Amino acid sequence: MKFSQVVGPRTSEIATADDPVPAADQVLVEVLACGVCTSDIGPWLTHDPADAPVRLGHEMVGRVVAVGRDATRWQPGDVVTGLGGDGFATLAVMDSSAVLPVPPGIEPAHVIGEPVADLEEALSRTGIRPGAEVAVVGLGFMGLGLVQLAKRHAPGLLIGVDPDPARRRRALALGADLVFAPDELPEEYRMQTSRATDARPEIVLEATGATGGLKTAGSMVRPFGTLCVVGYHHTGDAMMDMDLWYKAVTVVNGFCPDRTRLIAAMRDALGLIRERRFSYAPLITHRFGLDRIDEAFGTMEEAAPDFVKGVVLF
């Protein structure tokens, strides 16, 4: 098998090894597609060459080529997605309990289960209902996914917030009713006005992963509303905005550490993909080969107006 590994800052190399053998409760898959995730960019940016190489990639779709003794519900030829690791490789092992079959007739890059499962599981804990006024702050890959997922709940109003005009246009195309740059957000959506009713959204979904975005999201949510922190805040400390306390806001941590819950959410999300109620097609903008991992991460870091999400294809 071949795999990519990070050997230094911004530097990957292709290596080879014997094909892995699945344990009793695992399946071996031929990787067909693996998403390039922002949670992996830290190791790629900062890896110390003196340390052992690091393997990345966890957003996998693959074809089963071998099964362990106890993985009896799978057979060679099944196309699956799920939770795993070391996905920037031609072959990978995955726990048989952490994979699901993908809907037929859809290209592998458009049925990656892990990211949409994260979003669906987070959204399920917000209490979203038809008629709710909802905002998504941060309209990158995760935010645009949230726009699609929130739209299916028939919100009374769906607002998107992002400084990038290209991202705002994409949000409108995917179902947002209104879009704004953070510094152009109307006063009625960020503070109580003299209106008889509070115009601020009752559910705000933060998908920036940045303290500034979290502050904008907190300012938008109305009293007794819900702020769901979906963004990947992987460095530093995010200070608590005490105005959230005075507004009696419910803060939902959008991260889910439980694999069972994520697989359940993934099953629901794959059903939405099968029913054409969620689509990766407008989100996957860049495709790379295994030998272009560094280019894939560099493109994500640059985040040009034409970029939403990159995927490594095999």
Write up what this structure looks like.
This protein has 314 residues and is an alpha/beta fold. 25% of the residues lie in helices and 25% in strands. It has eight helices and 15 strands. Strands 3, 4, 5, 6, 7, 14 and 15 form a seven-stranded mixed beta sheet that branches. It has a six-stranded parallel beta sheet with strand order 10-9-8-11-12-13, with helices on both faces. It has a two-stranded antiparallel ribbon with strand order 1-2. β12, α6 and β13 form a beta-alpha-beta unit. The radius of gyration is 20 Å and the shape is globular. The model has no long low-confidence stretch (mean pLDDT 95).
How would you briefly describe this protein structure?
This protein has helices at residues 41-46, 113-124, 141-151, 165-173, 211-220, 242-246, 259-274, 293-302, and strands spanning 2-8, 11-16, 26-35, 59-67, 79-82, 91-95, 99-101, 133-137, 157-161, 178-180, 203-206, 226-229, 250-253, 284-288, 309-313. With 314 residues, the protein is of the alpha/beta class.
Oligomer: single chain
Low-pLDDT residue spans: none
Number of helices: 8
Beta-strand percent range = 25-35%
Biggest sheet character:
7 strands, mixed
**Order of SSEs:** EEEHEEEEHEHEHEEHEHEHEHE
Shape: globular
Helix content: 25-40%
Radius of gyration, taken over Cα atoms and rounded to an integer in Å: 20 Å
Q: Span between N and C termini?
A: 12 Å
- Mean pLDDT across the residues is 95
Number of strands: 15
Q: Decide which structural class fits the backbone.
A: alpha/beta
